[in-house]
Specification:
Layout: H1 9-12, H2 18-26, E1 29-33, H3 39-49, E2 53-57, H4 82-93, E3 98-102, H5 111-115, E4 120-123, H6 128-141, E5 145-151, E6 154-160, H7 173-176, H8 188-191, H9 195-213, E7 223-228, E8 233-238, E9 255-256, H10 258-263, E10 269-272, H11 276-281, E11 287-288, H12 298-303, E12 308-311, H13 316-328, E13 334-337
Parallel strand pairs: 1-2, 1-4, 2-3, 4-5, 9-13, 10-11, 10-12, 12-13
Antiparallel strand pairs: 5-6, 6-7, 7-8
């Protein structure tokens, strides 16, 4: 046996695996987008299994509220960029794997170039905008995408856009969730999530990646795996292609950090899209227009001449609001406050 494969003996010994499959993993290039609750376990198991090149992309820093489920990070990492910490830990775990950190936000302007370098993309993101963007980019580039999602006690995994023997591609995200960008499902901070679920779903994503890379015919292409960790039930449902056509990429909402906002606060028209109760409890100024009332305030928004910055608790509702305003007023400069005001010191 190749001595460099000695650490992988237990997986090489699997029936039908062997050194040939290990060579496939060694030669594979995989990109993980989002180094949070899903990206951490996915990256750890792919690194430990001997993936040759592992790209990790995220523009966020570690926060205290991440630590209960994002298991690559420790309290001393708070405030440090996730990809910097993750790259160091993964290299320590398996020095033979090439770890490429990308400290950036995936946008419509950089996604095609970034994914072009990789054989397989894995998304561990927590917002519908990036899920849709990655899906559309992978469809346009003809690349497979491993999907994972968690909310409270429930999780999902699939692999989208896999090339089939007849030359067609398996269902993608928009075949299953055609209006995902309009969904109002809270993220982990707002809706909550049990930490073990992130580990389970992240491991399933890593497993799906390994199966795809070694050429297994037992992948979740055309299927959606679902779990509820409270009652222990799992199920797999079959998916089908629809008539949804993807011809270009959705435009990415522009974000502004709180530091940038404070430095240029007087240049913006500020809008808080949280509820009136949330606004009264704590706010950073601006006009309060709850998200569900936004359309009725379009005459006011139409009259605003300065750039508009929108905020909420976590950054999710503000992104939705920006998208709605840009759809109605494409020429307006509208920004979302990155990560909302949930972690701003009071």
């Amino acid at each position: 046996m190749n001595t460099s494969f000695e650490r992988y003996q237990c997986q090489i010994a699997l029936p039908g695996f062997g050194t040939a499959s290990q060579e496939l993993l060694k030669n594979a290039r995989v990109l993980i987008v989002g180094m949070g609750g899903l990206g951490c376990p996915t990256a750890q198991y792919l690194a430990s299994s001997g993936i040759g090149t592992l790209g990790i992309a995220d523009d966020d820093t570690v926060s205290l509220s991440n630590l209960h489920r994002q298991i690559l990070y420790s309290p001393e990492d708070v405030g440090v960029y996730k990809v910097d910490v993750a790259a160091k830990r993964l290299e320590q775990q398996n020095p033979s794997v090439s770890i490429i950190p990308y400290r950036l936000r995936i946008t419509s302007s950089n996604v095609m170039e970034l994914i072009s370098e990789f054989d397989l993309i894995i998304e561990g993101t927590d917002n519908f905008e990036t899920k849709c963007l990655l899906n559309d980019a992978c469809v346009l580039a003809g690349k497979p995408l491993v999907y994972g999602a968690i909310y409270q006690h429930e999780g999902q995994v699939s692999i989208w856009n896999v090339l089939q023997k007849d030359g067609t591609y398996s269902p993608n995200y928009r075949d299953v969730f055609p209006n995902a960008e309009e969904s109002q499902v809270p993220n982990c901070r707002e809706g909550g999530v049990i930490p073990t679920l992130a580990g389970i779903v992240g491991c399933m994503q890593a497993n799906e990646a390994i199966k795809y890379l070694i050429g297994s015919e037992e992948t979740l292409a055309g299927k959606l795996w679902m779990i509820n960790v409270m009652n222990g039930k799992t199920q797999i449902i079959k998916l089908r292609k629809t008539s949804v056509q993807i011809t270009d990429l959705p435009q990415t909402v522009q974000l502004v950090s709180f530091e940038e906002f404070k430095q240029n606060q007087n240049k913006f028209e500020v809008i808080d899209v949280r509820t009136k109760e949330e606004h009264q409890h704590f706010n950073i100024g601006g006009k309060n227009i709850p998200l569900n009332e936004l359309e009725s305030h379009f005459p006011f928004i139409s009259s605003v001449l300065s750039p508009i910055i929108i905020y909420c608790q976590s950054g999710k509702r503000s992104v939705d609001a920006v998208r709605k305003i840009k759809k109605q007023f494409p020429e307006k400069e509208v920004f979302s406050l990155k990560n909302g005001i949930g972690e701003i010191p009071r």
